[in-house]
Amino acid sequence: MAEVTQSAFPHLPERLNGLGEMAMNLWWSWHPAARMLFKTLDRPGWKEAGHNPIKMLKELPHEILESAAGHPDYLRHYDVVFAQFREYVDTEGGWFTEKAPSQDSGSIAYFSAEFGLHHSLPFYAGGLGFLAGDYLKESSDLRVPLVAIGFMYPEGYVRQEVRDDGWQISKDQILDRDSASISRVPNPDGGQLLVAVPFIEPPIHVAVWEVVVGSVVLYLMDTDVEVNEPWNRGISARLYGGDLEQRLRQEIVLGIGGSQVLKTLGIKHSVLHLNEGHAAFALLERIRERVEGGTSYEEAVDQVRSTSVFTTHTPVPAGHDVFPFQLMEKYFRAYWAALGVDRQAFFRLGVHSQDPNAGFNMTAFALRMSGYHNGVSERHGEVARRMWRSLWPDLPEEKVPIDHVTNGVHVPTWIEPKMELLLNKYLGPSWLTDHDNPVIWELVDDIPDEELWQTHYWLKMKLVNTIREHARRRWVEDRVGPSITIGWGTLLDPSVLTVGFARRFATYKRADLIFYDIGRLKKLLNDRWRPIQIIFAGKAHPADDPAKLKLQKIFNAARDPALGGRIAFVEDYGEQLAQYMVHGVDVWLNNPLPPMEACGTSGMKAALNGVLHLSIMDGWWIEGFNGKNGWAFGGGDVSDNRDQGDAEAIYRILEREVIPLYYRVSEDGVPNGWVRIMKESMKSNGPRFSARRMVKEYVEKYYVNALRSA
Ligand SMILES: *Cc1c(COP(=O)(O)O)cnc(C)c1O
User: Fold this and answer.
1) Rounded to a whole number, what is the distance in angstroms from the first to the last CA of the chain?
2) 612 belongs to a structural domain
3) Which residue in 611, 348, 354 sits closest to 499, CA to CA?
4) Strand order in the sheet with 612-616
5) Are residues 41 and 175 in the same domain?
């Protein structure tokens, strides 16, 4: 490690070598004290580097680093944090070790098409990615022996820019691989490891990168290497791009290539966990390897089933990949022969009996070939059982073996550092170590209302300032017109009740629902004494024009003087903006079309920080809402006009409950009734919707059993 540090950061003084070591492990990203260590070296440098310590350490002038190395205050801070880091990485064993002792690192291979770990690593599109990223961080904290596989997408998802007329355009931005928190995995002769994906002609090669996430390693595959044919080089260029065939090739690389990468690295995993169906071909590789070793096909399938976990994430039909049989034939002819099955038998593995001619359905296939499968909330479990019941024709719906584990968020990542300090003060300094224990959270009641409110208000100001600064920059640098500058949020006012709506712009999420009755909305926005303001953010998929139209509608509303400057649309929603928003708004609004929201996680991030959830009864909120920790609507029967009914419910709750409560303040300016709900939200949701509770559930329900069968 010391050598790596020396060559990667030639300016780094010996005394601060640990900075280089810490920069190479994303541990820094969920430890505010470590982030401060980089930030205080040079604040502008930290900002310029996009909060990426590797880039920063490479670019900082030698004198700045030398001066820090001679600064006693800095060194004291450095020594403390570095010792914590060393303790974290050197400690062997943790919660997991007691559950299933004597497992090797990498016993569980976790495959995902996206990983959302930090905004400097653009390998995510939305919730699925953050779930996977949070899963790795929590697995590291609990010392689950996990190894992860994904893609290095140099172009990431889309960078969003909104034109003057409100139409979203995508902007290319290529990741500088050598300044990101990733490193090349070397091969024995010193170059970067290249692995050929088996069974593809002409061969596809992937270059292998790694990201160290605490004690977990994530290997990323990159097809942009010279030996590949030009059209193969772009396979991993970006998330969810390309046509159906390119998509199939991407999934072949993920599942089959990913398995080959692990094999080449000598990582013997005994359990496979698929985060969504994109990587399901990894199941085929597990079977093929066993058949190759002399096991019968049937026996191999049984072994693979009893050691494979599959998590399905979406009730939206378009979210499940289906590849035409012809296309499958083109790529898998040699493959089914290697398995020892014929064409028909192979295709049957991916048939969804409700639509048998549609093609090879990756979810149906993954459900058939894994012994443990689950949805991501209680409701989604029910929906998935209904959706896939035809795979188990002899069982009644409630007996269909699809279970659920409700998602959770990585608390150290999503708790705001100032809020964390406040909780340290009242819950005790070890609350974070034990944060899935609900008893600890009862102490939230001891926080004086005024202190909690001030912390929240400070976060709201931070959000508003950040948004205004973005608007100001666009005004100055791009000379956008005044009405557009106002649309970016110039007139936001931190004292006004602030509603946040930020997520991917898929049409089922109904981003524009609150505009349903524009007259009624105007009254709320323009109320002289008790106004509300709404901040929107989110990207539409580049091929989803209906979603772009919704975005345009909202952007144009934001510019309309009739709406009082109280609507803002903020560009390029990503992890960084998400952090500001889930910490800083007052109310988190969620109104998808039920039952399309498998779970939802942004509301959990908000609730954890005392931001109150106003949501339709769908996804996790059915489990989370307890009558006193936020607001809910839309649980009843669906009327003829669902949009109208749901929009009216939102107006009614805002008018009768949310607005009066927010503006009912004591003499010292604290809305005590509001703060009571904030506390209730933190207490009830914080421990329960944590990634810690989630990962423990996966371990106890599936991993422990699957490891036993291995
Ligand atoms: C948490 C998060 C999501 C997921 O949001 P939901 O719509 O609630 O599933 C998407 N994008 C970003 C940037 C996030 O941080």
Assistant:
1) 34
2) yes
3) 611
4) 567-570, 532-537, 497-502, 587-590, 612-616, 630-633
5) no
681 pocket-lining for ligand 1 (C-beta < 6 Å): no
The C-alpha atoms of residue 563 and residue 544 are separated, in whole angstroms, by 27
Q: Is residue 113 part of a domain?
A: yes
Domain shared by 625 and 702, yes or no = no
511 C-alpha to ligand 1 centroid (Å): 14
Q: Determine contact, residues 96/36, Cβ cutoff 8 Å.
A: no
Cβ(406)–Cβ(619) under 8 Å?
no
Last residue of a domain, one of 38, 59, 90: 90
Q: Supply the range of the domain harboring residue 41.
A: 2-90
How far is the C-alpha of 612 from the C-alpha of 486, rounded, in Å? 26
Number of domains in the chain: 3
Q: Do residues 307 and 146 lie in contact, with contact meaning Cβ atoms separated by under 8 Å?
A: no
Nearest to 277, CA basis, from 375, 377, 140: 375
**701 and 679 share one domain:** no
In a domain, 143, yes or no: yes
| Pairing of the two strands 183-184 and 194-196 | unpaired
Separation in Å, CA 452 to CA 218, 425, 445: 37, 12, 10
Instruction: Look up the pTM and report it.
Output: 0.97
Distance 668 CA to ligand 1 centre (A): 35
Q: Which of 130, 135, 409, 608 to mutate to test the pocket of ligand 1 (most atoms within 8 A of CB)?
A: 130
**363: Cα within 13 Å, side-chain hemisphere:** 25
Considering the domain architecture, whether residues 682 and 702 belong to the same structural domain is answered as: no
What is the CA(464)–ligand 1 centre distance, in A?
Answer: 20
User: Ligand 1 pocket, 259 CB below 6 A?
Assistant: no
CATH of the domain at 616: 3.40.50.2000
Nearest to 252 by CA among 356, 334, 352: 334
Dist. CA 202 → ligand 1 center (Å): 38
Q: Please say if the pLDDT value at position 2 is more than 80.
A: no
On the 0-12 / 13-18 / 19+ scale of CB atoms within 10 A, 245 is middle
In this structure, the answer to whether residues 586 and 699 fall within a common structural domain is: no
CB of 103 within 6 A of ligand 1: the answer is: no
pLDDT in tens, 470-483: 999 999 999 989 99
State whether 611 and 596 are in the same domain. yes
Q: Measuring CA to CA, how many Å separate 236 from each of 152, 221, 253, 696?
A: 7, 8, 9, 32
Asked if 151 and 224 touch (Cβ cutoff 8 Å), the reply is no
- The pLDDT of residue 178 is 83
For residue 543, report the distance from its CA to the centre of ligand 1, in Å.
20
Report the C-alpha gap between 39 and 154 in whole angstroms: 26
The number of angstroms, rounded, from the C-alpha of 428 to the middle of its chain's C-alpha atoms is 29
* 171 and 83 share one domain: no
Each residue of 630-654: pLDDT tens digit?
999 997 766 678 999 999 999 999 9
Gap between the Cα atoms of 375 and 276, Å rounded? 10
Q: Is 313 in the pocket of ligand 1 (CB under 6 A)?
A: no
- Which of the listed residues 34, 60, 90 is the one where a domain comes to its end? 90
Which atom number of ligand 1 is nearest to the Cα of residue 597?
9
Regarding whether 458 and 401 lie in a shared domain, the answer is no
Strands 271-275 and 360-361: unpaired
Q: Compare 565 and 317 and report the one with higher pLDDT.
A: 565
Identify the band that residue 106 occupies on the pLDDT scale cut at 50, 70 and 90: confident
Find the 123 Cα to ligand 1 centroid distance in Å.
Answer: 14
Ramachandran angles phi, psi of 487, nearest 5°: -60, -30
Q: Is residue 596 part of a domain?
A: yes
Q: State whether the beta carbon of 127 lies less than 6 angstroms from ligand 1.
A: yes
